[in-house]
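The protein record filed here.
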Amino acid sequence: MKKSIRTLVGMMAVSLVLISCDKDFLDTEPLDRISSDATWADGPLSEAFVFNVYSFLGYGGFEEQGLASLTDEAMFTHSGRNIETVTEGSENPSNLGWTSETYEWGRMYLALRQANTAIENLPESTFTNNLLRDRLLGEAYFLRAYYYHQLVRYYGGVPLVDRTYGLNEDYSIERNTFETCVQFMVEDLDQAITLLDGKDETPGRASKMSAMALKSRILLYAASDLHDGPTAAANSPLLSSYANLALVAYTSGDRISRWNIAKAAAKAVIEASSGYKLSLASPVSAEEGKANYVSIAMGGKSAVADAGAASELIFQRTHSALYTVENDHPLGGINHGINNGPNGYHNWAGNTPIQQLVDDYEMMDGSTFDWNDPAHAADPYANRDPRFYASILYDGADWKPRPPDVAPKDPANQIQTGTYDDGDGDKISGIDTRQSEIENWNGTRTGYYARKFIDPNPNLPDDLSNAQLVPWPFIRYTEAVLNYVEACIETGQEEEARTWLNKIRFRAGMPAINDVGTVLKDRYRNERRIELAYEEHRYHDARRWMIAPTTLGRGIQGIDVQAELKPGATPHVPYKHDKLVYTYSYTVVDNTEIETRQWNDKMYYRPISRDEINRNNKLIQNPGY
C-alpha cells in the first residue's frame, strides 16, 4: 500500500517540474494539488485517494501506549501519559485522558469525510477500469463502516454523516440511536461484500472476507448485554437512570433474534475459509502449540514462523521497513519490540502484563491455576497453556541474545525480573528490573514483559537499526470462530460451541473441554481472553459482558521473585536461572505505584469532549459525564 502512495508522490513531483517550465505566468491553477476532476478521471489517482482513507488506521494497535494498558491485561510503565485518568475513573469531558488516534472522535470524522468523498465520487468517475472502480468503492464502504464501528464501540450511537458537507452549512447534527448505527454499518458492509466479491485479496486492504468478518463483530456486540437495554439497565443503576438509553442500547426488539443473526454472520465467515490449523481432532504437542501461536502472532512474517499462519489474518495493518516515518517518535509498528521489550535489552517496557492475566492461563491439563495449590505456587510458570510461553516473558524465560554491552552480564539470555542470593549475604537485582544497572527507569513494574507480537528471531535485535515487519491483526479468522461459539452458547447450541472451541484449543496444544451452562460460558470467556490477548478485544469484551466492575476495576498486581541459594550450592557468576542451585519463591504484590484502578459505570463509554459539544449543541453527553 505504501509503495503505491510513494509512486503517486513521484508522479506528482514530475508533473510539477513539467508544469513549472511553462512560461505562461497567467496560468494560475494551483501547482501543489490535484483537482477533483483529475483524481476521479484517473484510476491510480482514485486508488491513491482511497489509500489515504486507510491512513487513518494508523499503526493499528502497535502504538507506544496500548489499549491493553486500559484493561486487566497490562500496565503502562511510564507515568505522565494520562493512562490513569481513564483507569481510575477521573476522565471527564474536559479531561479525556489518553485517547488513541485510532478511535478519537475528531480524527474518525476526518476519516469519514474522506470515505464519503470516495463513495460520492467513485460511481461518477470516468476512468475505464470497472473492476478497480468497484474494488475502490467496496473498500470505501468497508472503511466507512470500520470508522463508524470504532466510534460506536467507544462512544455508543453517534451522528451518522453519509455525505460531505459544503461551506456555510449547518454542521450541528444529533446522535443517532445505537440500533440505527448498527443498521447503517451493516448496510455499508453488505455493499462492500457485493462490490468486493471476486476481487483479489491483498494484505492490508479490505476484502469480501474482511467485510463479512467486521459485520460478524458488529452484530455480536449488538446482541451483547451492554447493548440490550433491559439487561444493561438491570445491571447498572447509572444506565437504568439514563434518559437516552437508546443512544447506547436496543430498547425494543427480540434479543434472541439478534443472537441468531450474529451467529449466522459468524458462521458465514468460518464457512468461507478455514483459518490456520483448525481442523485438528486432538491436541498437538505443547511445543507445537507454542509454535502455532507464535506463528499466528507473527502473521507468518517472521523467519521463525510458519508462513501458513498468514491465512489467519482477515484484515491487517501491514508494515514495511521502507516506511521511514515510523522511525520518528512516537514509535509504532516496526518498533513494537523496542516499545515493549525488557530494559536489559535497552527496550522500554511499555505495556507489561499484569498478574491477573498471567493467572488466567490454564495449566497444561486444562485445570485452573491456583495460588492456593502448593505445587502451583512453588513453580507457577511450569506446565502452563503453551500460549502463555508464546505471550509472556517471565523470570527465567529464555529470550534473544543480549546486546553486546549486556551479554557478559547474562550469557544465558534469560529474563531476570527477580532478586537473587549472591552467596555472600547480599542480593543481586535482575538486569530486567527497575533496580537494574541497565536503564532502570525502563524496567517493568509488574515482573513481566510482553512477548506476543515481538519477533523472536534471534538475529533481529529490537533496536532502531532493525525493522519488525509483524502485521497488526485488526480481524483474524479465530475471532470469527469465537464469535460463533459465543452466539451458539447464547442460543443453546452448546455441543456446537464446544466443538469449535476445542478446535482452537487443539491448535494450542490444550485438551478438550466438556463444560455446560454457565461453566461453559465462563470457560469460553477465558478462552477468548487468552487467545486474543493484547489484540484490543478485552477492553470491549469486559464492557459488553458487563463484567468490567470485577475485572477491569481490579487493582494492578505483579510478582515478587526471590531466589535463595540452596545449602552447599555455589552461586552462578554471572547469575543464571537454575532450580538446582536456587530455591525460588513467588509472592503476588499489589502495585499502586502509578495507578489505583477502580471502576465507575460511566466508564462503559468514553465521554464526548467539551469542545465537540460546544461545536455541536445537539450532542447529548454519555451517561455519568
